[in-house]
Structure formats: C-alpha cells, structure tokens
What we know:
Elements: H1 2-11, H2 17-27, H3 31-40, E1 43-44, H4 45-51, H5 57-69, E2 73-78, E3 84-89, H6 91-94, H7 97-110, H8 116-128
Antiparallel strand pairs: 1-3, 2-3
Amino acid sequence: MRLCAILQRVTSRQLCPRFHRAVELIGRRWNGAIVFVLLQESARFGQLRAAIPGITDRMLTERLQALEREGIVSRTVVPDTPVRIDYALTKKGRALGEAFKTISSWGEKWLPAETSSTRSAGAARGRSRGRKTLSS
C-alpha cells in the first residue's frame, strides 16, 4: 500500500518526503559503503576503514556518528585491554538489507565494471577540480 502512495506522489510530480530523506541519508557519500560492510558482520573502526577504500578517519568517524544518531548503527564499547569498540547495524539498519541487494543487482546489470584505468581517470578528474585524492 505504501509503495502505491509513493508512486502516486511521483506521478503527480510530488516527491514523498520520507523517500527523499531515505535516499539522501543512504546516498550521502560513504554512508552506503558503511552500511554495506556492516550488513556482512559487525566491525571495528580499523576494519571498516580497511574495507572502504578512500575514506579518511575523520570522515568515517563523522559518518558513523551520523548513522548512530539516525538509529542505523550501534556502537558498543567492550571493556577489554585495550578498549575495543564494535560497530553493528541495528534492527533499523539491517532492514536495509533487501534494498541493498536490489541496488547491488541493479548495479551488476546496468553499470560497467570499474577497471584500474577508469579509477585513474576518476582520480584525475577529481584533481582537475581541485579535490584531493588518494594519489595527490
């Protein structure tokens, strides 16, 4: 029933506010990658950083905090020596699993595989716009 309501709003040229907020939240740079990794299993900060090429410590920290505020990620402090912090998806975050499977299937079908030359071209475009990349 809700999908119908969304489709009706789209066909009447009005964007559903909840759909828009969801897309903006998950589509924000790095958020999708973080959720994707955590859909596999819980992880520590360093594991997340290693699994997501190009993310900085600062950006990972900011995105984890934002996802935690949204109730998508939980942060658990394990009183070990040294102290360990685990990140995992909440029930709300795990509910994104089907959506991510659908997006992944769409990407497999419609997006070309990235090669080292397309990654290099993307990095060069980023530098030409004054953005910092891993190689700059």
